[in-house]
Design a protein that fits this description.
Layout (H helix, E strand, L loop, with lengths): L10 E3 L13 E6 L3 E8 L2 E6 L10 H10 L5 E10 L2 E2 L1 H8 L3 H10 L2 E11 L2 E2 L5 H12 L6 E3 L6 H10 L7 E6 L11 E5 L2 E12 L4 E10 L2 E7 L5 H8 L14 E2 L14 E2 L1 E12 L13 E5 L13
Parallel strand pairs: 1-11, 7-9
Antiparallel strand pairs: 2-10, 3-4, 3-5, 5-6, 5-7, 7-8, 10-11, 12-13, 12-17, 13-14, 15-16, 17-18
Length: 326
């Protein structure tokens, strides 16, 4: 297998945990880690850690590449998720802070906020490309390889039992696990394709609609706010509204009364790093109202990293009663 940027296999979202027979060879269920996807390759001269998009992260996470050099033979390539743990819970903010470090401070950061690599697939061993093999064969080889590992290299768990997967889905949320990734036991590793499935744990909550993208008469997306640090802060936005949702929402939207806490134009990063636009975003400000949305686990205390789903307007709810998630 050639050393260098490796295109990774992907998953498409589904609403329910699939039945065991949903994928070729039967479903294999794994935790969906809240981190950064990464592939580590062990070469004769050392190890390289790359992001899903091919960015070289070797100098940013020296503890991972050092572990790869010490614990892997040349010619190995692993697919996994970079994570940081704080007090027994996945800490995406700490991981994001690590991503922003330069090589000069990476060594100190690796000691104060060490990362781990949760490995869930084996792409190559001894220079042999394993991606054409069925998942069950790759997994068996990965378990053999991982038997001698120690942190920060960790083997991600897997189960063929849907009942066990349901238990994981319900109980692992407390540790920050986003949901499940589901693979077929007979599936090969199809780089760049969404052959796997993923299901995220979602909750409904009230947010404050302080603006929309589009017009008040034909809103396209809701701009969500929550009280953070004593002020109404933009914390995210919904995906595109359905035609019915646009009509239902529009009847409750009115022009702001008095001074609005938000500007009419916000910078591209106003919705968070993972919702950034190419340029400034024009908002249509409205008198704040309460709406119910569906959100996954990606709340960081100041915003939602992923798009929200609009559920309904809550016209009877008081704006002052809305609080951020715990």
């Amino acid at each position: 297998m050639a050393v260098g940027p490796t295109q990774v296999a992907l998953a498409r979202a589904v609403e329910r945990i699939p039945e065991v027979s949903a994928l070729p060879g039967g479903c294999r269920y794994e935790p969906k880690w809240d981190g950064f996807r990464a592939v580590v390759t062990r070469e004769d001269a050392g190890a390289t850690l790359r992001s899903r998009r091919g960015t070289d992260l070797s100098a940013t996470f020296p503890e991972i590449t050092a572990a790869a050099v010490a614990q892997l033979a040349p010619g190995a390539a692993l697919d996994g998720e970079l994570v940081v743990w704080t007090a027994g819970r996945l800490d995406f903010e700490a991981l994001q802070e690590r991503m922003g470090r330069g090589p000069r401070t990476a060594a100190a950061a690796s000691r104060s906020r060490p990362a781990s690599l949760a490995v869930f697939d084996l792409l190559a061993v001894d220079g042999r490309d394993l991606r054409p093999l069925p998942f069950d064969e790759r997994r068996a080889l990965l378990e053999q390889l991982a038997a001698s590992w120690s942190p920060p290299l960790n083997l991600s768990p897997v189960t063929a039992s849907r009942d066990v997967a349901v238990t994981w889905f319900e109980t692992y949320a407390a540790a920050g696990i986003e949901g499940l990734v589901v693979k077929g036991g007979a599936q090969r590793y199809t780089a760049g394709e969404r052959a796997w499935l993923k299901v995220k744990r979602r909750t409904t909550l009230d947010v404050i609609a302080g603006a929309v993208i589009g017009s008040r008469e034909a809103p396209q997306q809701v701009v969500a706010g929550l009280p953070v640090d004593g002020r109404l802060r933009i914390v995210g936005r919904t995906g595109p509204l359905s035609p019915g949702a646009r009509v239902g929402l529009a009847r409750w939207l009115t022009a702001p009364i008095g001074e609005h806490p938000w500007p009419a134009v916000v910078p591209p990063g106003a919705f968070g790093r993972f919702n950034a636009q190419n340029g400034p975003v024009v908002l249509t400000l409205v008198e704040p109202i309460v709406v119910e949305v569906s959100a996954d686990a990606a709340w960081n205390g100041r915003g939602f990293r992923h798009l929200l789903r609009f559920v309904r307007v809550q016209p009877e709810a008081e704006v002052a009663s809305v609080q951020p998630p715990p």
